[in-house]
Structure formats: C-alpha cells, structure tokens
Amino acid sequence: MRTELVYLKDSYLKELDAEVVQIGDGVILDRTIFYAASGGQPSDFGKMVGSLTYEVKDVTKQEEIVHKTDLLPPVGEKLKLFIDWDRRYKLMKQHTSIHVVSSIAMREFGAMITGNQIYPEYSRIDFNFKDWNSDISRLLEKRVNEELLKNQDVSVLSMKREEILNMEGALKVDLRLLPPMDILRVVKIGDVDIQPDGGTHVKNTSEIGRIEIYKIENKGKNNKRMYFSIHR
Ligand SMILES: [Zn+2]
C-alpha cells in the first residue's frame, strides 16, 4: 500500500494536504485522513479540493486505499482533504464505546463477541452469553457507564506479536486475523480494554458520555444482538 494512513497517528486531524499518485476506479493518494471501511467501522465521507472540488462518497481498502469520488482529478494534482468531522467524531465515540461494552461483557458477563457494526448514531454487537438472563443488559449498561465516567485515557501503542499473546485479555484476540506485521498497533482504554486495532478512537472516555442499550434481538437462547446509542 502506497498511502500513509495519517489518521492512525492522529485521529483528530480534519484537514490534510495530499497528492494524487494513481487513478483507477477512484483516487489513490500519497497520504490520507479518510478512514476506509474495515473492522466494523464505516468509511469517512468528505471532500478533496484542488482545481475542482471532489466529493468523497466512499473509501475502500484492498491492496490500496481507494477514495470513491464523483469526478476524478489528474495524477499529480495537489489536494486539500476535508473529512466530514461530525460523522467521524460520532464514529470515534461509538468505536471506543464498543470496545468498552465488549470487554465488560466478556470479563464480567461471560460473553463471546461474534460480530459487531458501528454507525454514527448507534452500534450493534452480537454476543453469545454463557448463561443469559434478562437482567444482564441493564447490569452491563450500568457497568459500562461506570467505566466511561472514570475519564479513562485512550492510548495507541506499538506492540510485538508475542507481547500481545502474553498480555492480559489476549484470549479474545485471534492473531490469525491480524495483519502479518511483527509490530502491531494496539489500542488501550485505561484499565478496561487493550487489543490490536486499526480504528479511530477518542482520547478519553469523558468525550463519550454514557451509553444506552435500547434494543435486544434474540438470535437463539444465548445469542443476542444488542443495540446501543450514546448520550451526554
Ligand atoms: Zn476496534
């Protein structure tokens, strides 16, 4: 991949200068702040301004990061990138929250996470609980909000694969699913959660407020799909 993923170092950058290095079914840049849909987090939207304004409607990640635009700029054009910050910041809050929900559900309520998806206004998680009962969602919501209210710092670390294997809570990490690098990006949320992750997160849980679990769908006796939203 030729594109430097600047959002991995600074999730709060809203603008960036970049240059077009290739045109295919979209725009490939030398560097970007646009997040490409992956790991349950949807892509950023926004615009790139050069000789024209190019609307970014989707960003995909295969061998390259491809910005899907309405018009195509020429190779070599210098662009100023602007992400839709309102949407991205909502996604960052949801992403950090979903880590806290997953971690508490696993550690304190014996759940396994089988899937998740983040949206700007809500997130959903699929769980397999060891032993489901109707009090769990209320208790889980309460415990998550206690942790969020502790104003826990969120930090991004670089760790070796074997360090990740040995760290506490590593059981939930399937190393086969991680990128094949020796050094991996790890997101740590205070003492609540630590895991390899390529997403964008807030700096402190105080930015989130509290979560509300507002819907549970039954997918079997112990399989539940939970939806939560975020409130100040
Ligand atoms: Zn994540």
List the helices and strands and how they pair.
Blueprint: E1 4-5, E2 15-23, E3 27-29, E4 31-32, E5 46-49, E6 53-61, E7 65-69, E8 78-83, H1 85-109, E9 111-118, E10 123-129, H2 136-148, E11 154-160, H3 161-166, E12 183-189, E13 193-196, E14 210-218, E15 223-231
Parallel strand pairs: 1-4
Antiparallel strand pairs: 2-3, 2-8, 5-6, 5-8, 6-7, 9-10, 10-15, 11-12, 12-13, 14-15
Helix pairs in contact: 1-2
Bound molecules: zinc ion.
Zinc ion is lined by residues 39, 95, 99, 197, 199.
Task: Tell me briefly what this model is.
The protein is an alpha+beta fold.
CATH architecture of the largest domain: 2-Layer Sandwich
Principal-axis shape: elongated
The small molecules bound here are:
zinc ion
Kindly estimate the percentage of residues that lie in beta strands according to DSSP: 35-45%
Largest sheet, described in full? Answer: 6 strands, antiparallel
Trace the largest sheet across and list its strands.
Answer: 3-2-8-5-6-7
Mean pLDDT level:
93
CATH class of the largest domain: Alpha Beta
What would you say this structure looks like, in words?
It is a single chain. With 232 residues, this protein is an alpha+beta fold. It folds into 2 domains: 14-83, Elongation Factor Tu (Ef-tu), domain 3 (Beta Barrel), CATH 2.40.30; 88-231, 2-Layer Sandwich (Threonyl-tRNA Synthetase, Chain A, domain 2). Helix content is 19%, strand content 39%. The chain has helices at residues 85-109, 136-148, 161-166; strands at residues 4-5, 15-23, 27-29, 31-32, 46-49, 53-61, 65-69, 78-83, 111-118, 123-129, 154-160, 183-189, 193-196, 210-218, 223-231. It has a 6-stranded antiparallel sheet, with no helix packed on it. Strands 9-10-15-14 form a 4-stranded antiparallel sheet, covered by helices on one side. A 3-stranded antiparallel sheet has the order 11-12-13. A hairpin with a 3-residue loop joins strand 6 (53-61) and strand 7. Helix 1 (85-109) packs across helix 2 (136-148). The chain is elongated. The termini are far apart. Bound molecules: zinc ion (ZN). The site of zinc ion (ZN) has 5 residues, from helix 1.
